[in-house]
Specification:
mainly alpha, cell inner membrane
């Protein structure tokens, strides 16, 4: 049952990561990384498929092998976070939701920008 749960949540993460390509409030990278972790616990075949995917594969492999988040991904995420924050300020969003979302967005930005952008030549 646990494998089935991991498999279902992994596919949900792939779906959310794919939607995140087009919607500024959904981050793609964390969902895809979560999906590959869950697939590795439930379906090695799907984990391999995701690791070899033309779009997501390089991102996953850079993260798994080197702990790297590319500068392009960081800049793209930063632009999307700025758009999301701007939309929250512009729209009539309750203050507690602004604080919660702002805290999450800030945490994501801190995490991303404290990761290396290039592979260490010794790894």
């Amino acid at each position: 049952m646990l494998k089935l749960f991991y498999l279902l949540v992994a596919w949900l993460a792939v779906l959310l990561g794919t939607v995140g390509i087009f919607l500024p409030l959904l981050p793609t990278t964390p969902f895809i990384l979560l999906a590959v972790i869950l697939f590795s616990k439930s379906s090695p075949r799907f984990a391999t498929w995701l690791e070899q995917h033309g779009t997501f594969g390089p991102l996953i492999n850079d993260w798994q092998r080197h702990g790297v988040v590319s500068l392009k991904a960081k800049c793209s995420a930063s632009v999307m976070v700025a758009i999301s924050a701007g939309l929250m300020l512009w729209m009539d969003v309750p203050w507690f939701a602004r604080i919660a979302a702002g805290t999450c967005l800030l945490a994501v930005m801190i995490f991303l920008w404290t990761r290396p952008s290039v592979k260490n030549s010794s790894s």
